[in-house]
Design a protein that fits this description.
By secondary structure, this protein is α+β, with helices and mostly antiparallel strands. The chain has six helices and 28 strands. The strands form seven sheets. Strands 1-28-27-26 form a four-stranded antiparallel sheet, with no helix packed on it. A four-stranded antiparallel sheet has the order 2-3-4-5, with no helix packed on it. A hairpin with a 6-residue loop joins strand 26 and strand 27. It is elongated and about 135 Å long.
Length: 456
């Protein structure tokens, strides 16, 4: 009993020190019969022959020097053949003894030693694949003048005019030119359907356009007291941020469009981004503040209290980007006096990491297919920087703009990025790789009731 306890204890200790795969294989081996003991099959044994071989049958072989006549040797061989005495084995087994089982099968060992084929490194072009002129674009850090819709049409505000550029065929059209009293255009944002677009104006109004019919649907007034520089959609709710520090949620379906008001910023709101779930809104302002608002605690009768007020930035917070693969992860970028990209857990309000980029952070975009983050910058290099997340190691720096890169937008497939700068150029970068090819749908079986599980 003591020996058994010691063996089982040592065996369990070994199992705990191994990895899960090895532990599973060892347990399966112990569940079978002990493979180092071979039990003779008595029914297949000839005990008389065994006794003869053990007592006298081996004497001649043990003493090879003893001489015997040729005739007696021939007689002995004939007698052995007649009585089936040429056997050399004494013990008989029913089956051939199995080969010992290995703790780790050969196929696993060979797979473990094989070098894992490395994923081919993606080529990132260092120059823009296309450059378009963008005359009269406002060199204003606090505005948002560029957006790319879900129908692959890019919108850009140049002075008092909003232009649409269709990426599928390269055609350009003019949507609207605002009169000088109302303009210039201070923000543009596509609705999720890629058909409707919101246009924020310098006179505090917001227009809603149907781009298919090229028709103005409505003008929302009375919410803000000064220009509207930040916009974002949450289904049918359009959130607007103004120079007055207010954030207003507008239900574009109803006449009385103002449904919620968020008050927390003391200066201009220059960044607005809804999370993918539509539950949290991030807002950044010229007061160096970053707020997280939760839709579940919103109130239509009184200004809503923020969920988190984050004060770690030391300059205006315009660049905001929600992580596509982790819903509560937000990246934010600070202006010229800060130059940091910070990462936040928006559930707890904790700052997870901060990276000093050394220059003004104007915009941020996540790669939808890889764990990468793209940032655009101002002084002194006016570059786009691609970072590996979470290590924040620089993968590439893209240069070409000669002024600060104020605006960025991402194509619907997530691969191409458009950037607009104060140098009055619009550049397109193939920074996030080629779009993934959709896998073909599995072939449907022609067998009737193939969707029903078979009965065993």
């Amino acid at each position: 009993m003591d020996t058994g306890n010691v063996n089982s204890s040592s065996s369990s200790n070994k199992n705990r020190s191994r990895g899960p795969l090895q532990e599973h294989l060892l347990q399966r081996r112990n569940s079978r019969e002990n493979l180092d003991r071979f039990i003779p099959n008595r029914s297949a044994m000839d005990f008389d022959y065994a006794n003869y071989m053990l007592t006298g049958g081996m004497k001649g072989k043990e003493n090879p020097d003893v001489c015997s006549s040729p005739s007696s040797e021939a007689y002995r061989k004939l007698l052995a053949e007649t009585f089936n005495m040429n056997r050399t084995r004494i013990l008989a087994f029913r089956n051939k003894p199995p080969t010992p089982a290995e703790a780790i099968p050969n196929e696993f060992m060979s797979a473990a030693h094989q070098v894992k084929s490395a994923k081919p490194r993606r080529h990132i072009p260092q120059t823009s694949e296309k450059t378009l002129d963008a005359p009269d674009i406002l060199d204003d850090y606090y505005l948002n003048l560029l957006d790319w819709g879900s129908r692959n049409v890019l919108s850009i505000a140049l002075g008092d005019t909003v232009y649409l550029w269709d990426a599928s065929d390269g055609t350009t059209s003019e949507l609207v030119t605002i009169d000088e009293e109302s303009g210039p255009v201070t923000s543009v944002k596509w609705a999720p359907d890629g058909r409707h677009i919101a246009v924020g104006l310098n006179n505090s109004e917001v227009q809603l356009w149907d781009t298919t019919a090229n028709r103005l649907l409505r003008t929302m007034k009375g919410g803000h007291r000064s220009r509207v520089g930040a916009l974002d959609w949450n289904n049918h709710i359009l959130s607007t941020g103004g120079m007055d520090g207010q954030i207003i949620n507008n239900d574009v379906r109803v006449r009385a469009h103002i449904v919620e008001t968020y008050e927390g910023h003391h200066q201009e709101v220059c960044g607005l981004k809804w999370s993918a779930s539509g539950q949290q809104l991030a807002s950044g302002g010229n007061d160096n503040l970053l707020h997280i608002w939760d839709r579940s605690v919103a109130s239509s009768s009184a200004p809503t209290q923020w969920l988190h007020r984050l004060e770690e930035h030391t300059a205006a917070v315009k660049a905001l980007a929600w992580c596509p693969f982790q819903g509560n992860l937000l990246a934010s970028g600070g202006g010229g006096g800060d130059g940091c990209i910070k990462f936040w857990n928006t559930h707890t309000g904790a700052c997870l990491n901060s990276v000093n980029t050394g220059s003004q952070v104007c915009a941020l975009l996540w790669n939808k297919n890889e764990r990468e983050l793209l940032s655009s910058h101002g002084f002194t290099h006016n570059q786009l920087t691609l970072w590996k997340y979470p290590s924040m190691v620089k993968i590439a720096e893209l240069t070409g703009h000669t002024s600060r890169v104020l605006f960025m937008a991402q194509s619907p497939d997530g691969c191409t990025v458009a950037s607009a700068a104060g140098d009055e150029t619009l550049r397109f970068w193939n920074v996030f790789g080629e779009p993934e090819v959709a896998k073909p749908a599995p072939k449907t079986s022609s067998e009737p009731f193939s969707h029903v599980n078979r009965i065993r």
